[in-house]
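Bug report (template v2)

What were you trying to do?
Predict the complex of my protein with zinc ion.

What happened?
Run completed; filing so the output is reviewed.

Input:
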Amino acid sequence: MRSAALMGAMLLVPRPLLPPPDAPAPRGFTTESARAEREWEAKFQAIPDPDSLREDMRILSARPHHLGSPRDSANAAWLLGRFRSWGLDAGIETFQVLFPTPRERVVELVAPHRFSARLREPALPQDPTSSQQAEQLPTYNAYSPDGDVTAPLVFVNYGVPEDYVRLERLGVSVKGAIVIAKYGRSWRGIKPKVAAEHGAVGCLIYSDPEDDGYHAGDTYPRGPYRPSEGVQRGSVLDMPLFAGDPLTPGVGATADAKRLDRSEAPTLPKIPVMPLSYADAQPLLAAIGGRAAPGGWAGGLPITYHVGPGPARVHLKLRFDWRLVPAYDVIARIPGAVRPDEWVVRGNHHDAWVNGAEDPISSAIAVLEEARAYGALLKQGWRPRRTIVLALWDGEEPMLLGSTEWAETHGEELERKAVAYLNTDGNGRGRLGTDGSPVLARLISEVARDVKDPETGMSVWKRTHLGEVADARGADRRREAREHSDLTVDPMGSGSDYTAFYHHFGIPSLNLGFGGEDDGGIYHSIYDSFHWYTTFSDTSFTYGRALAQTVGLATMRLAGADLLPYEFSRLSDRVGTNLKEVQDLLTAVRDSIEEQNRQVEESTFVAMNDPRRPLVPPAREPVPPFVNFAPLQNGATRLKSATSRFESAYAAAMKDGGTALDTGRVAQVNAALFEAERRLAPAEGLPRRPWYRQLLSAPGWYTGYSAKTMPGIREAIEAKRWDEAEEQAAVLGRALEAEAALLDRASEILERGGSSGAE
Ligand SMILES: [Zn+2]
């Protein structure tokens, strides 16, 4: 069966989707440079090859290769050799980062009866790499403190702030307790943070079968979902405060860097944390008594979920080896022929929690194919205008270590040179998913029109665009989705290597990957393996090829365009949408507080109370004042008009194919465009977390992975800090005015026409 399928795949001739010769020039290209660009792109598209992708994955995922392991450094050396074999100038940059690994792990139920959690993922005969136990990192949450606590157990649903509001109404406190939370709905580091804020002394996090186990589908090895003893490893640092090495905030973790003492490192969690499989979690949950879990809290286990506290008591004992380990970033550079001091950076991590075939190898191999293709083009005479930097980061899994420490080390250079950062971190099948800077929406949409979707034969753009229409809720949204020719670029939260580039340095960034048809439950477990990937995910590696084609073309266009290919209408639209959202949010908060106060006065909560299942009534709250959003409204309006002026100026300058654009004017326009996104990331950053400077999106303080748009304002409203919401509206308003001023400057130069001196 398998070999017949393989032969079928070999017979398919990869025929790239090439635009017609009279296709409009890609954004930023004059007609003349577009012609040369298209020829090189056609050659590029023909190179990425499913067989090499598969072979590279087999090699890179053959053994566990977490940060600090022998195989991690061996993989780095192998990757370096690959880059060099294609004639690229490459090297390894090493950082020294804090990375604890387990010495002792105990999770046991001590009352009402005894049960010891196994804390082990068994090998499966079908999956050859699952038996490499001596090299596998045990299951744990990296950066949990050492600890030895015995306490009653409380079930806290997903362990996000609203769950604690619910617990309060139930009259349940977690003070002095160990909490058990489901994975999901937030970055995992949020769970111990919120638990500790409420006085808990320990935190267990388990994978509920409802989310990625047998409720979702057949479990591994029969299907792709999480088997009963599969465990999600992962970091629990306070990522929304800052990313990177916890001991060197804001500076590169070089060997001689000044380091914080561990006791004063603010991103380290305060209470011990440990992940569990659902096989280990079930006896603990079943032993919890007290109130039955409120509606919506029960998961997929065949038990009645209770909240507690007790009679279940748990003993949690953890000890770690707190060491600095080397992180090896593998970096290749292709110098730009015209603008060597403008960089397009393209990255993916190479470390994994265990074998990591899907995360991160499925997209790291695309970087390799892109590099191989660039090597081949260079031999044929291709020279990018700008410098391309290819990076395979180490230590992403513990806390985006390799990328953040590299970016912080080269920060001064990045601020002057980086025009874009393109990231991937895992690849499956389906549609192209994109998050990042809206100014790159046009670029990626144009690229997606020129790449073929392997399953439908449509362009990647067409399939993804139709998908957006199908997903849109309501007639208005659907019409909007149909009318937009640019694909949606979602706001960036965090959880991958773009964070230092985008959130800290304000560099236009995209995070890309195919997905939607590749669900599973092997994330961060020993079952994320070559066997799993080649049985259930992109088994033909044709989406691996499409990813290399997509990101490769995007990189080439960013590196080759005359004018930086940023386009601002999606940005301006998003600002408008987000502005409306924060206004609506404020109104909703006002209304709900007024209503709640009224119900307290009317004794509604007394009337509704069931004495056998009593609820604690909420307290009266002060009604929020009105907040002045005028500076933000003015900034948004200003940006909107500057955007349409720039679009007209751009269209006029390109009308005759850009022949009137001399190099002097191009350089001046680019200088203004280069600064534009950076204006949205001013030096002062967000309140209480100045490392995060991007004002339009950030990982939520209490969500982590998922983005908060206009985070300064939105989180101030959520936390009921009304003065701060008003201040932040003014800060963002000023940033938008500055952005608009830069766009106006660029328009002015384009509108001037004629020559304006040599470059
Ligand atoms: Zn990853």
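What did the reviewer find?
The pocket of zinc ion is lined by residues 349, 359-360, 396, 425-426 (CB under 6 Å). The radius of gyration is 27 Å.
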